Amino acid sequence: MMILVCYDVATSYNNGTKRLNKVAKICKDYGQRVQNSVFECQVTPSDYLILKHKLEKTIDLDQDALRFYHLGKNWQSKLETLGKDYSYDPEKDSFIF
User: Fold this and answer.
1) Which residue in 48, 52, 21, 53 sits closest to 37, CA to CA?
2) First-residue to last-residue Cα distance in the chain
3) What's the CATH number where 60 sits?
4) Can you give the residue range of the structural domain that contains 41?
């Protein structure tokens, strides 16, 4: 399944920069960065649960935020891009932002 992971990590206190880097690294293990704090991830349902658990353990639940968008099987038809397009096909291409 295709999911979009978006995060906002408060970097101004309590090892925030370290948490931010760790969140990005975890997301990179499961998908492709498409914007600074946004990853597209093609995962199995079990990988999604693992990813979510790892991220939940990493962030500060009082100050940081995570969003998971479940795009489903026909995600390509739900994607529209304006401006510079960093598109790729996660099943075929590798892409580095």
Assistant:
1) 21
2) 22
3) 3.30.70.240
4) 2-73
Helical segments of the chain, H only? 16-30, 45-58
Q: Which long-range contacts (CB under 8 A, 24 or more apart) does 44-50 make?
A: 44/1, 45/1, 48/1, 48/3
Is pLDDT of 56 > 90? yes
- The number of distinct structural domains making up the chain is 1
pLDDT tens, position by position, 66-86: 999 998 777 766 666 677 666
Taking the model in full, what pTM does it have? 0.80
d(CA 66, CA 70): 13
Give residue 88's pLDDT band: very low, low, confident or very high (50, 70, 90). Answer: low
